[in-house]
Amino acid sequence: MTGPVLVTGAAGLIGTVLRGGLPERGWAVRSLDVVPVPEPRPGEEHLVADTTDLLALTEASRGAAAVVHLAGIATESTWPAIAHTNIDGTYCALEAARRAGVGRVVLASSNHATGYTPRPDGGLLREADAPPRPDTYYGVSKVTMEALGSLYADRYGLDVVCLRIGSAFPEPTTTRHLSTWLSPGDTVRLVDAALRAPSPGFAVVWGASANTRAWWDLTAARALGYEPADDAESYAEALIAAHGEPDLADPVHARVGGEFTTADYDSEHFDA
Ligand code: 15L
């Protein structure tokens, strides 16, 4: 693949991690966000555009080797905000890639596409055993993202890799994160694998580190070439001392989406 990787939502948490990590793995980065990216790196292209602006996104996609689509609201919000920013935005990312002749799109899906899925009674949960079961309007936007990705793979032959990201934070801060954490280093490793995997077609994989307490099966992600290097367990002692042992019967630990499945995450508690 030649050309830069277009990263949408490049000024966000994951975008910032990728802007640092992808060049170390040989990728040129073309950053795009609704706000200017802070401190562009040497050689980094940087654009300001809204991902719901199809024409701007099509221009931004020209000559790119691939698109990594991160832009969007990263938590629950109102339906109009989610529908516009996340659902229209994902349509535009895929349609722009198609119009610009970009062959591969990596989509930042989320565990919340399947949030109400219960923890299996022992063993690891495969993506195939976690069909759409969103926990929020945000989760619905991620289900739609995966559906749009499937459509563009089948109808237009794009390679589309959907990453059902767990908890992508600098470090785990809750006992749920002991199972769901995706470290910054592993975020780069996972996206790099999704960009390099030979002809993945349409794929949906969990995005998590090699956590000792994991209950999401990483076999499909590893099949793309992902080799996670981090484990949240090194934070376990401190987190358990602060918050207590995880109660596996509590919805926060008993369902994929954790606290997003609780009443606190009803859309009425969120502003646009
Ligand atoms: C997500 O999809 C969110 O963007 C992030 O803020 C976290 O809530 C994460 O999931 C998670 O499940 O921990």
UniProtKB/TrEMBL annotation:
Which interval of the chain is the signal sequence? none
Q: Does the keyword DNA-binding apply?
A: no
Q: Which GO terms describe its molecular function?
A: oxidoreductase activity
Domain of life according to the entry: Bacteria
Q: What Pfam families does its record include? A: Epimerase
**Which stretches make up the NAD-dependent epimerase/dehydratase domain?**
5-172
Please name the PANTHER family in this protein's record: 4-EPIMERASE, PUTATIVE (AFU_ORTHOLOGUE AFUA_7G00360)-RELATED (PTHR43103:SF5), NUCLEOSIDE-DIPHOSPHATE-SUGAR EPIMERASE (PTHR43103)
What is the protein's given name?
A: Uronate dehydrogenase
* Native source organism of the sequence: Blastococcus aurantiacus
The record lists the lineage as:
Bacteria, Bacillati, Actinomycetota, Actinomycetes, Geodermatophilales
